[in-house]
Amino acid sequence: MPNYKISVIVPIYNAEPYLQKCLNSIEAQSHSNLEIILIDDGSTDKCPQICDEYAVKDSRIKVIHKKNGGVASARNAGLKIATGEYIAFVDSDDWIEPTMYSDLLDVCLNHNCDYVGCSTQIRGGTSGQIKFLTANEYFADYLNGNMFLTVWSRLCRREVCIDIKFPENMMVCEDGFVALPTLEKAKKIAFLEKPLYNYNQRENSFTRGKVTIAKLKCWLDLYNSWFIYSKKNGGIFDKAIRKKYEGLFERAAKLIKIPVPYKLLALIPFGLVRFAINILDKV
After folding, report:
1. How far apart are CA 129 and CA 126, in angstroms?
2. From CA 192, how far away is CA 103, in angstroms rounded?
3. Which CATH number fits domain 6-198: 3.40.50.2000, 3.90.550.10, 1.20.950.20, 3.40.50.2300?
4. Which element (helix H / strand E) includes 87?
5. In 3D, which of 55, 34, 163 has the Cα closest to residue 105?
6. pLDDT tens, position by position, 228-250
7. Taking the model in full, what pTM does it have?
8. At what angle do helices 174-185 and 135-143 cross, to 10 degrees?
């Protein structure tokens, strides 16, 4: 079987308690032909030093130290220098199982797939079976809570994702914006029901932490992009997206501490909601 190179991009910001476990899990992969790209996004802890120490010991590691610009800009910086035939992402507070990339690459090569996802320890199944899906089926599985719609826990053929840019103006859910365009570019998609990616659900993480107006804007823009995608497909996802849209108002209620009728408010046109949130941001 061809020994293809996999570029593994790791955006890093103040992840000192978790970084070594993450990097050790990548270094220990049974598929050893890796290009490990560490993007230090202006960390103020010991992450820069840890990255440099690992690079000295492992020639597969490349380190970029940059001014803080957010996880999207860090991932984009990694994509600019990636040279692998396949691309993968790992978040710096997560870790992966030793056979993750060999297992996913096997699926890619044996079934001529150019996009393969896998389960995490909390979502996606453990049967070891391979499912083949269209982009719409993949999105539907996500909306039904069966899998994550992310860039980590995935392996993509270079041609599918190398030109896709993460939106650097998004504080959160930036991978949700690129996931669907990536799926649409893939000619054949598979999902391996095997928990190979370990997702660290930290309550104080940037995504799961305190709700802010800026974060609400990001989620609102993401859901609107999904409504546009649904419209292109005859509105087949509208109902499921609407449920997530209602949840956005629940988050808003927690922020402004005012009870709101979520389902009724979720019927308000996107533009008016975005306008209202912009006003709240200035209050």
Report:
1. 8
2. 9
3. 3.90.550.10
4. strand 86-89
5. 34
6. 999 999 999 999 998 888 777 77
7. 0.91
8. 150
